[in-house]
Design a protein that fits this description.
alpha/beta, 19 helices
């Protein structure tokens, strides 16, 4: 066994662990419609621009709803919206409602980066919207995130909601999920099979005569038009008309949105911006609508982001970010989505905790790419509202393109890209690549470092804390994290998962873990609510308990203290900046 270094003696002033300057590191009070700071251009209270996305050429559908819930959520009769959220929206001042849309749409054939070709008009359709929005005007920030639901699994899946819902709720966004494609409705596991009584009237095939997704583009346009300029039932209830609508889509949906941007956006003119997450093809360069690409290391390594698309340089309307160590499907997505899939489909997704692991290496990167995604949405709002272009970011380093090969260090960690502390100052080897059946190639890996590796990298707890906090503040300074990043629950769930792993390994007792969990739960409640002083004090108590109760395994004790002390230091930085 390696000789483990002794824990650095704690001092009463735990929060003075960081000895470097924090000026400009955090600005945690501004809302997303305020312009974000950009290099060489200070933020200022400039009036928001008027949206130019009129949607004048897009038809208004008939909106029906909100559709009543006829059974409790989870009831086998399925009288509720598919994948109805398990988030306590009421406590956050939000509501979830489902609406049906009926109208006639134009069929389009996309053709690369050229305008789409009309295949037919006046094609009847019926589909649905799910809306999660502030219950009252005071909380609404004026921005709708319209998600093109992913159907890779042959049912509707709202990936970007799962990744960013805490941030969207915290900042007052409204979210709208659009069922635009046939598979979401008509597959053997689609909405119509899942609940014939609820979704029977819906149809995206014109009575079975349309066997492709050529209707999807105009259906999506009309869904956004119904939100922006309703003519009857308003899907946003009593909220004012949104100032801006930003489309978002992950993976398969990013590809559809790239096609939409190239072929339909110019004529439809119903969106203010587009976020392509985890893919999307080559984009035309003659449009004024901003596009933000966000890709993980896994997207680059697998070729999901085509080389030709990746080679497109940033421009006044295009920004591309790549997150080192992140995977296409990650821990955040699977752990948030898993319980709802189990409830409504009957099975957990691959890699869900406690389920058999089928990939070659432990799957699902723990790099919190979702925090970067949160920053993407806020920057996109500042882009369209105030003309403040998002900051640039370095691309992931490659050693080859055919096939794609990521450059790595001696630990196997990707070089280049946006480097969050979880990657730059690792406790685990996170990567975007894995192998095995099914979606393993998309789920990446997350393998804990050994005691010996951790002892070598971080001879003391403080050496980890200083490096981790510095990396996090650098990412915040660069604009690659949102201004409210310290309120993200992942800081606390990561610590909870860490403790759980050591309990499962028999290295921390269940009794000790229960005593730590009490403080962790209350710290999370305070920290996610923005009460950094209270959260920090509770984490101080957690660290005290860890030192007193984890005495037989110094490495396990130090593991808990590393993560706890780093979070305390980050909260202290946030508190100082808020003064």
């Amino acid at each position: 066994m390696p000789v483990l270094p002794a824990t650095t003696p704690r001092t009463p002033a735990r929060r003075s662990l960081i000895a470097f300057g924090l000026a400009g590191a955090l600005a945690v009070t501004a809302g997303p419609v305020a312009p974000a700071a950009a290099a060489g251009r200070p933020a200022g209270p400039t009036p928001p621009r008027q949206s130019t996305a009129t949607g004048a050429n897009v038809a208004n559908p008939v909106v029906a709803g909100p559709i009543a819930r006829t059974t409790p959520v989870g009831d086998s009769r399925h009288g509720y919206p598919f994948l109805a959220t398990d988030v306590d929206l009421a406590a956050a001042g939000y509501v979830e409602e489902e609406f049906f849309l009926f109208g006639t749409a134009t069929r389009y054939a996309v053709q690369g980066t050229q305008d789409a070709v009309v295949l037919g008009a006046d094609q009847p359709y019926g589909t649905r919207l799910v809306v999660r929005r502030p219950a009252n005007t005071g909380k609404f920030n004026g921005v709708v995130i319209a998600e093109w639901n992913n159907v890779s699994n042959q049912w509707d899946q709202e990936v970007d909601w799962f990744q960013s819902h805490e941030h969207l709720i915290r900042e007052g966004y409204a979210w709208v999920g659009v069922s635009a494609q046939r598979a979401g409705l008509h597959s053997a596991t689609g909405l119509k099979a899942w609940s014939p009584g609820r979704y029977g009237p819906l149809d995206l095939t014109v009575g079975g005569t349309v066997t492709d997704d050529s209707l999807s583009y105009d259906v999506f346009s009309q869904a956004v038009k119904a939100v922006r300029h309703p003519t009857g039932v308003d899907p946003l209830g009593r909220l004012p008309a949104p100032r801006y609508v930003i489309a978002t889509g992950h993976s398969q949906s990013a590809g559809r949105l790239a096609n939409y941007y190239n072929g339909v956006q110019r004529s439809a003119n119903v969106l203010d911006a587009v976020v392509l997450h985890g893919g999307g093809g080559v984009l035309r360069t003659d449009l004024a609508t901003p596009v933000f690409r966000l890709n993980s290391e896994g997207d680059v390594a697998s070729g999901i982001l085509p080389a030709a698309a990746r080679s497109q340089a940033d421009s006044p309307v295009l920004r591309s970010w790549e997150v080192a160590g992140a995977s296409h499907g990650d821990w955040k997505l699977i752990t948030d989505y898993g319980p709802l899939r189990k409830r409504d489909i009957g099975s957990y997704p691959g890699g869900y905790p406690g389920e058999p692991q089928t990939c070659t290496l432990p799957s699902l990167s723990r790099v919190p790419q979702h925090m970067v995604q949160n920053a993407v949405y806020d920057h996109t709002v500042a882009w369209v509202a105030h003309g403040v272009a998002p900051p640039a970011a370095p691309r992931i380093d490659m050693t080859g393109t055919t096939p794609p090969a990521v450059a790595r260090d001696d630990l196997g960690l990707a070089l280049g890209g946006i480097r969050l502390a979880q990657h730059e100052v690792p406790l685990r080897i996170n990567s975007g690549s894995n192998s095995g059946p099914g979606f393993c190639f998309l789920d990446g890996i997350s393998v804990p470092l050994t005691d010996a590796q951790l002892a070598t990298l971080y001879p003391t707890v403080r050496s980890y804390v200083d490096a981790s906090v510095a990396a996090t503040l650098l990412a915040a300074d660069a604009g690659h994290l949102p201004r409210s990043f310290t309120r993200d629950p992942a800081w606390y769930s990561d610590l909870r998962d860490l403790i759980g792993e050591y309990v499962a390994a028999g290295r921390i007792s269940e009794y000790a873990a229960a005593r730590l969990e009490d403080r962790l739960r209350r710290a999370e409640q305070a920290g996610t609510a923005g009460n950094t002083a209270r959260a920090g004090a509770l984490l101080e108590q957690l660290a005290d308990r860890a030192e007193k109760s984890i005495t037989r395994d110094p490495a396990a004790r130090d593991a808990v203290l590393r993560t706890t002390e780093a979070l305390i230091a980050l909260l202290d930085a946030a508190e100082r900046r808020a003064r």
